[in-house]
Amino acid sequence: MKSLYIASVAHLALAALSEFAGEQDVVHEFDKLPDAQKEGLVAGVNMLIADPNAGADARHNAWMEKMLADGWKFSKKRDDAAKTHPRLVPFDSLPKKEVAKETLLHAIVRTMASGEQQSAAVTKTAPAAAGTVPVKYIGKKDEHKDNLYGTGLEWKAGQVHHVPPAAAAKMLAHTDTYAQDGVAVAGVAESNTPAKDAAPQKLPVPLPNLDGMTAQELVNFAQQHYGEKLPDDMSKPDMEAKVLSLVQLHGR
Questions:
Q1: Range of the domain at 228
Q2: What would the pLDDT profile of 1-56 be if each residue is shown by its tens digit?
Q3: N or C of the chain: less Cβ packing under 10 Å?
Q4: In the chain, how many domains are there?
Q5: SS3 assignment for the chain
């Protein structure tokens, strides 16, 4: 999957998030962005793809390092002539909406880029039908049966089943019950049990796997999970971006 496509999908989701937050003059079309902004977004996507261990703060840290090296300094007011900028602060000190945007971008890149490696992840579990998604049960029960999404599958703790994409997308939205096997979510430990003395963390909500979902399935997903009615004339990429932003804003 090309980084340009991932960047365009990520921008749609970020635009939807900005609009929801009440920002004005939001540009939804990726092609209408200034060249510098498009290039910066694609470069950030490439960086996250190249470094699987990069966290949600990686893009901001790289930008800040370059700005400081070029002589910029922190100030509450941006002044290009004086080379001052209000966002030259550690990632955790950024405004909450900026942290949310970077977290969303990071989750989108991780989810979409991992789709290209999914076939390799499937071989770690068991032979499966083409196009299915390896879903692992991570809930608290010793045994669990799916009675909500039409698969009828039964899991034991930690067991993996290969699930059709449409059902998997809905399951993976419930991050306390299911996880996509073989695909690590940045910032989330393998174990469900936090370290005894570990401080609680704010973790990004993993995005559902949208591969294979039709436009109607996206409409149903938004309606069933969030009570959100998507417009009839909305394009499928815009639907995907809207669903991604709903997951990040409201969780499962």
A1: 3-117+183-250
A2: 468 888 888 888 888 888 877 888 888 888 888 988 888 898 989 999 889 889 99
A3: N
A4: 1
A5: CCHHHHHHHHHHHHHHHHHHCCCCCCCCCHHHCCHHHHHHHHHHHHHHHHCCCCCCCHHHHHHHHHHHHCCCEECCCCECCCCEECCCCCHHHCCHHHHHHHHHHHHHHHHHHHHCCHHHHHCCCCCCCCCCEEEEECCCCCEEECCCCCCCCEEECCCEEEECHHHHHHHHCCCCCEEECCCCCCCCCCCCCCCCCCCCCCCCCCCCCCCCCCHHHHHHHHHHHHCCCCCCCCCHHHHHHHHHHHHHHHCC
